[in-house]
Amino acid sequence: MPFSPLSRLAQEQPLRVLLVNAGEPDALTWAGLVQPLRLAARMLGPEQLRLDILSPQQAALTQPQPGWHLALLVADEQQAPPPPELLRTVLDRCRSARYWGGVGAGVLWLADAGLMAGVRIALPWALYAETEALTQRAILTPHLFELDGRMLSCCGGAASIDFALTLVAALYGATVQAAIKESLCIERVRPHDERQRVALQARFGALQPKLSEAVTLMEANIEEPLSTDDIAGLVGLSRRQLERLFKQYLDSLPSRYYLELRLQRARQLLLETNHSIVQVGLMCGFSSGSHFSTAFGALFGNTPREERQRKLMPPAG
Fold first, then answer.
1. What single-letter DSSP state applies at residue 69?
2. HTH araC/xylS-type domain: which residues (predicted)?
3. Could you tell me which of 92, 138, 98 has the C-alpha nearest to residue 116?
4. What residue spans of the chain are helical by DSSP H?
């Protein structure tokens, strides 16, 4: 799993996490992140997990701690960045941790400082208009959150809750995560690669309307997939032009992107509905059960049947 490298941090006693809140204390981006982590710290005790929660000013006055294992700079998307000198100091504090990154607008500030060069990042869709200068330095994805090497990013908002709960599961297992979900009345944790619903439209709608239109067609035709030639004709492009757009902006071929959309939908149906595996395959455009299973395994690393077991089996630590 993409976040499994974090599991080795749980061997550290105690695990020390730095959260720098550069936004409002009642913002959803901050609350969604800090609440699950506070609950985890309360359940596990200071011998296993310690949270250092600081403002940018407090972080700047604190000496870098080599003992921090994970550090995140957090701000809601409307927040203006701190003054440059203060921001540089805060970034230095975060970078002293073994894993570090940003949530919400914090991701943009890290990328803008040149610290996300060549890294896959999940940025709030509302900030995509500010990323023109970043496209050569960071790799934007439409996902909710990312772990790339030592660097973490989350688009913020409601996704902060999914991000925090994924961190908890990666560090301390499904049993601790399940207890926090129950305490917060959360039924489902969205996976990291679930897409921000309007991210593509926000990023490309004005500059690349043909690309946005092609993706919309794909999303509307999951059960009976269109061919690449059909999609190209419907948006008024040649097949080659469409493939060029997908390669340039999404680093994928239209056929590959479409397949992953259908498989993402299949995984959602396996986890959230009682449709049989055969029905799910048919609903996502797979007439062959073996093709569905092979494609699903190639993308997610497990079979549709194993994915369904996640829904049926009780959590295990």
1. S
2. 212-310
3. 138
4. 28-44, 56-61, 84-95, 105-112, 159-172, 174-184, 199-204, 209-220, 228-235, 239-250, 254-272, 277-283, 289-300, 304-312
* Distance from C-alpha of 149 to C-alpha of 126, rounded to nearest angstrom: 25
How is 85-120 classified by DSSP, letter by letter?
Answer: HHHHHHHHHHHTSSEEEEEEHHHHHHHHTTTTTTEE
* Nearest-angstrom CA–CA distance, 58 and 39: 23
Query: Given the structure tokens 């593509």, which residue do they identify?
Result: 200
Asked if the model's pLDDT at residue 228 lies above 50, the reply is yes
pTM of the model: 0.66
The encoded tokens of residue 153 equal 């990013």
User: The domain 4-184: what is its CATH number?
Assistant: 3.40.50.880
From the number of C-beta atoms within 10 Å of its C-beta (0-12, 13-18, 19+), residue 31 rates as middle
Task: Delimit the CATH 3.40.50.880 region(s) of the chain.
Answer: 4-184
Length of the chain: 317
Superfamily (CATH H level) for 208-317: Homeodomain-like (1.10.10.60)
Residue range(s) in the chain whose domain bears CATH number 1.10.10.60: 208-317
Tell me the mean pLDDT in the region 152-166. 93
Residue 92 has pLDDT above 50, yes or no: yes
Beta bridge mates, 103:
74, 154
